[in-house]
Design goal:
Helix content is about 40%, strand content about 30%. It is of the alpha+beta class. The protein folds into 2 domains: about 170 residues, no CATH class; about 230 residues, Immunoglobulin-like (Sandwich), CATH 2.60.40.
């Protein structure tokens, strides 16, 4: 292998390293824009309301036990009794609302929920002394319902049968402070109880319910076409289409310890939930970041193509031309990132890929000595961009598609160079079959 070729390979290695730096800078810009999008989401949540997790209605009763120790000292303890409903039925709709802050779009929603809770017996609210000679005094039973962000409560109406109850802010629950409560004076503990709660609630991106009941049923419908169902339980039934989604969850206390966890004072992050999130199927920053990760492979495949053309045709390509081709490929990702902030991702991708392929086609025509070769080179670049979009849009099969593509390229290179005299490279062109 002659010295000039070794020098050229070394220069190409330096050029590739420089292009890696360019790609890293573009990737850093994508991360920065993604962080600013998150800041915009946080700002909207601070101004409107955050993700909402609904709990209740639950029944609470605050009690105090006083007793005298053998030494004659008087001691006391405060405790809380809770009663989760035997049946909890929640239904309603989610109306998505897209909010913008600068260039960034954030998914928020308004939701009208109807909640029906029924208790068959209230024995858990009857106080019992734990100390010998202890005297227990308790306040009235209250009904409470909690949300993650009380600013999202636009209106609430709580009824006992047909009787409206006086709703007050706060919950009187130590672990779930945000929400509302209503006193239930004169409640008889040997009878059942039925409450109906109507909520007008707003939030951001996610709506969840804690299934703190013997049996919980949740039915939601929305015009949002791209829901992500999360929490500890997936819907028992769901339909997702162009008109939106409907979903129904059914959870019993045999499958969830949510009621016991709430009674034990665990926080919302520690208990089971049923949840749906309004996600964007194509996040331009995530997609751009994933595309940039394939940038080095793009550059390597293009350099291999140009190098093979040099070897098989005898046409010399200057390292500066390699650099310009690599820069054109790298700036495609910057163009994609900037356009996707203003246009749908597919449209931005087509524009950026079309512009890069057009520039490289006309440049390759001069670099490789003919429009036929330039068109072939540009067609190959267009195929690479097509393959990249397939990789981006098929996340589940991206690995196998990428592996097959790279194997096919390697097989093509090995086939084209199988007769090449590597030791005499630069002094001879490979012979045909």
């Amino acid at each position: 292998m002659n010295k000039a070729l070794l020098i050229k390979l070394a220069i190409l290695a330096v050029i590739t390293a420089l292009l890696c730096i360019v790609l890293a800078q573009i990737g850093g810009l994508a991360h920065e824009r993604q962080a600013r999008q998150q800041e915009a989401a946080t700002g909207i949540e601070q101004s409107l309301a955050g993700a909402q997790t609904l709990l209740g209605p639950l029944l609470l009763r605050h009690c105090k036990e006083v007793w005298t120790t053998p030494r004659g000292d008087i001691e006391s303890r405060n405790f809380m009794l809770t009663a989760a409903p035997a049946e909890l039925q929640v239904s309603g709709g989610i109306s998505p609302e897209t909010r913008t802050r600068g260039l960034f779009k954030i998914n928020t929603y308004s939701s009208k929920l109807s909640v029906a809770a029924r208790w068959t017996e209230l024995s858990t609210l009857a106080p019992r002394a734990e100390r010998p000679g202890g005297r227990v005094e308790c306040g009235d039973v209250i009904a409470m319902s909690s949300v993650s962000d009380a600013r999202g409560l636009r209106s609430a109406e709580l009824k006992r049968g047909d009787q409206p109850l006086s709703v007050k802010p706060g919950t009187a629950h130590a672990a779930f402070r945000n929400g509302l409560h209503a006193p239930l004076p004169g409640l008889k503990l040997d009878e059942g109880l039925a409450l109906n709660l109507t909520l007008d609630l707003v939030g951001s991106q996610r709506l969840a319910l804690i299934p703190a009941a013997g049996s919980t049923s949740l039915a939601l419908q929305s015009s949002w076409q791209h829901p992500s169902f999360g929490g500890r339980f997936l819907p028992a039934e769901r339909q997702v289409g162009v008109s939106g989604f409907t979903a129904r969850w059914q959870v019993s206390e045999l499958a969830s310890n949510a009621a016991a966890d709430v009674a034990a004072g665990k926080s919302a992050h520690e208990v089971d939930t049923l949840a749906v999130e309004l996600i964007d199927p194509v996040n331009p920053y995530v997609m751009s970041d994933r595309a940039i990760k394939y940038g080095l492979i793009f550059i390597a495949l293009t350099f291999v193509t140009v190098g093979l053309t040099e070897l098989l045709t005898g046409r010399r390509v200057h390292p500066v031309q390699y650099l310009l081709v690599g820069l054109a490929l790298s700036l495609f990702f910057l163009l994609l990132l900037s356009l996707s902030e203003h246009l749908p991702f597919l449209v931005a991708y087509l524009i950026a890929a079309g512009a890069a392929a057009a520039v490289l086609t006309q440049y390759a025509a001069a670099m490789l000595g003919g429009w036929l070769r330039g068109l072939a080179f540009g067609g190959g670049i267009a195929l690479l961009y097509g393959a990249l979009y397939v990789l981006l849009s098929r996340e589940q099969t991206a690995l196998v598609i990428g592996a097959v593509l790279l194997f096919a390229v390697l097989a093509a290179v090995m086939t084209l160079t199988r007769k090449l005299d590597w030791y005499g490279m630069g002094s001879a062109v490979p012979k045909g079959e």
